Amino acid sequence: MTERQERTASEAVLTRIGQVVILHHAGDREEARRRLLDLWTEVGADGDPLHRCTLAHYLADTHDDPTDELAWDLRALTEAESAGGAGPTDGPRSVPALKALYPSLHLNLAADYVKLDRAEAARAHLRRARGAAGALGDDSYGDGVRAEIRRLERHLGDAP
User: Fold this and answer.
1) Residues in contact with 28: Cβ distance below 8 Å, sequence separation at least 6, in sequence order
2) If pLDDT is split at 50, 70 and 90, which confidence band does 92 have?
3) Which residues of 10-33 are buried (b: 16+ CB within 10 A; e: fewer)?
4) Which residue from 33, 47, 94, 139 has the fewest beta carbons nearer than 10 Å?
5) What pLDDT, in 10s, does the model give residues 104-126?
6) For residue 87, what pLDDT is reported?
7) How crowded is residue 107: how many other Cβ atoms within 10 Å of its Cβ?
């Protein structure tokens, strides 16, 4: 497959994920979970780590049980790390699109640990989210993630 075809196929998967996220935000959590799981199966174990990370990241949000949410968020982080090393600046294979996800991945993990009354684990991931926040753009997404980091810092009494 040519590079252009691969890029087009990759963009199509991300578009499909985005469409399901819109469905989820519109309130159809169960259908969104079902469609994301279908995409997870379609992408497969050897699929693009960006797709697998993104899917796991959004699948976590479709679960009510904090333990299930944590499991998917951990899977999302594992997928990001498998493609780009242990963090947003590690490794020659580092994927720029995944770098920008690290703050949100760690923020979600911190929030999961708060729900599970595991404050120290929450603080550890909050520190990692804060440390990775430099990869965020100066846009609404970056502003939102930074605001959530500050909110959770206040909640945990962990402001820098």
Assistant:
1) none
2) very low
3) eeebbebbeebbeebeeeeeeebb
4) 139
5) 999 999 999 999 999 999 999 99
6) 46
7) 24
C-beta contacts of 111-117 below 8 A and 24+ residues apart = 111/152, 112/60, 112/66, 112/69, 112/70, 112/73, 113/70, 114/152, 114/155, 114/156, 115/66, 115/69, 116/66, 116/67, 116/70
Check: CB of residue 110 under 8 Å from CB of residue 151.
no
Structural contact between residues 108 and 124, judged by C-beta atoms closer than 8 angstroms: no
Handedness of CA 5, 9, 14, 16 (dihedral sign): positive
Answer for the pair 27, 43: CB distance below 8 angstroms, yes or no: no
DSSP 100: T
Side chain identity, residue 37: L
